[in-house]
Amino acid sequence: MEFRKAKKSDEKGIAHVLMKSYNINSLKEGIDAFRAEMKKGHNFVVAVENGKIIGIASWVSHGLPKHQLAELDRIAVLPEYRGKGVSDKLFRFLLEDVKNFYISKKSKLRKFFVLTHADNKRAQEFYKRVGFRFEAKLKDHYYKDKDEYVMSMFFR
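Request: output the structure for the sequence above.
Response:
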């Protein structure tokens, strides 16, 4: 299994993972989502096995590098690869990518956070396992009557 930064040519593989893991209904919608997020400065990494993208993760820097703040936007693995440690390895690779970005800007990562639906216990358990801790609850954040949790990791 290989972990690397995503390339534009990965868009179909990324769109396929998005379709299997998120509320994305077609390859076109997944490709459009990938392109739109890349234009907004999101950084993608992929897990590849036998030439096939089996997992994706993305992050985005917030503010200026001196603010030392980044967000985990998404992490997803194809259903048939779940429970095999792919997400953990993909997350570790992504975290190194984030840290290296800040080093390249002569800064360092201070806080890394993720938003997750309050009722998504599976995701929360994953985030806890890789080092995130509950920080805050955002009431009706994206949807009415659906709260979000902010989970964060801090670095010195």
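The helical segments are 11-21, 27-39, 86-104, 121-129.
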